[in-house]
Design a protein that fits this description.
Layout (H helix, E strand, L loop, with lengths): L1 E3 L22 E3 L8 H6 L6 H36 L2 E5 L14 E2 L4 E6 L3 E2 L4 E3 L4 E12 L7 E9 L2 E10 L4 E12 L4 E6 L14 E9 L8
Antiparallel strand pairs: 1-2, 3-5, 3-13, 4-12, 6-7, 7-12, 8-11, 8-13, 9-10, 9-12
């Protein structure tokens, strides 16, 4: 029990809170714990105020919600990162009754029989792989040709291109074999949007493609994390 005789207004000493202006000319009793409690201000008992209790409850509730949201965000980030690093493709040339070529200019080979295209980086209509993100990629191709007769000339040159520049190539020119094949595997550093594709040199041809032995493949070896935002 306290006895109070005050004139004027009672204020809660807090940057944002104040008691309503009241006249306490003669008060004899215990101050109740109302949302704005003068006793809390006078006695410096912050924990007893209903307003403080509600604030602490809100603080705890907000913290718990933020913790749950952070956990969900972490799972979502991991899921996106996993999907974004699953990049791989394999495609073969579709069967043709005749030879592919010769042409009067270099021609991009369209490997339009897709066996795998995780990340959707390979465009079968154009025969072009576009890097979805930065990183080191393993790219490979196999060039196969069968002219059908030992007397025919086996004559082809296939080259891997990166943004118009030659990365690797393979060629054959002889009349000793009626069929031949070769494989090249390279590791290339690609930025997002870089393009890799295969070209058949002008004047050359690939024959006997019905066995799907001409293959173009690639996959992301590891991403470049320092360019995660830009990638």
């Amino acid at each position: 029990q306290i006895a109070t005789s005050l004139s004027g207004s009672c204020f809660l000493l807090h940057p944002f809170d104040s008691c309503p202006s009241i006249s306490l000319m003669s008060f004899n009793g215990q101050l109740t714990c109302a949302p704005w409690n003068c006793e809390c201000a006078f006695m410096r008992q912050r924990g007893c105020c209903c307003a403080s209790n509600k604030m602490f409850e809100l603080e705890e509730t907000t913290f718990m919600r933020m913790t749950k949201l952070w956990g969900k965000l972490t799972k979502l980030t991991d899921s996106i990162a996993a999907n974004y690093t699953h990049i791989a493709f394999t495609a073969t040339m579709a069967p043709t009754p005749d030879c592919f070529g010769p042409f009067t200019t270099n021609v991009t080979i369209s490997y339009n029989n897709i066996l795998l295209n995780d990340g959707h980086g390979y465009n079968p209509a154009l025969g072009v792989f576009t890097a979805p993100r930065c990183g080191a990629y393993v790219m490979s191709f196999r060039a196969y040709s069968n002219v059908g007769s030992p007397t025919e000339r086996l004559y082809h040159k296939v080259q891997m291109m990166k943004n118009g520049e030659v990365v690797a190539s393979m060629w054959e020119a002889n009349r000793e074999d009626m069929e031949d094949s070769g494989t090249q595997v390279v590791v290339v550093d690609l930025k997002r949007g870089d393009q890799i594709y295969m070209e058949l040199m002008y004047g050359r041809s690939l024959c006997g493609t019905g066995a799907q032995k001409n293959i173009f493949s690639g996959y992301l070896l590891y991403p470049t994390y320092e360019n995660w935002v830009a990638a």
